Amino acid sequence: MSILVVGSVAFDSIETPHGKRERCLGGAATHFALAASFFTDVRVIAVVGEDFTAEHEAVLTRRRIDTRGIEHLPGKSFHWSGSYVKSLNDAETLNTELNVFETFSPKIPSAYEDSEFLFLANIDPVLQANVRAQMPKVRLAFGDTMNYWITGHTENLLKVLKHLDGLLINDGEAKLLAHDTNLVAAAKKIHELGPKTLVIKHGEYGATAFFSENVFGGKRRVHPFRAPALPLETVVDPTGAGDSFAGGFFGYIASQGEMTPAVVKRAMFYGGVMGSFAVERFGTERIQSLTRDEIDARFAIFEELSHLE
Amino acid sequence: MSILVVGSVAFDSIETPHGKRERCLGGAATHFALAASFFTDVRVIAVVGEDFTAEHEAVLTRRRIDTRGIEHLPGKSFHWSGSYVKSLNDAETLNTELNVFETFSPKIPSAYEDSEFLFLANIDPVLQANVRAQMPKVRLAFGDTMNYWITGHTENLLKVLKHLDGLLINDGEAKLLAHDTNLVAAAKKIHELGPKTLVIKHGEYGATAFFSENVFGGKRRVHPFRAPALPLETVVDPTGAGDSFAGGFFGYIASQGEMTPAVVKRAMFYGGVMGSFAVERFGTERIQSLTRDEIDARFAIFEELSHLE
Question: What is the ipTM metric for this complex?
Answer without folding.
Answer: 0.93
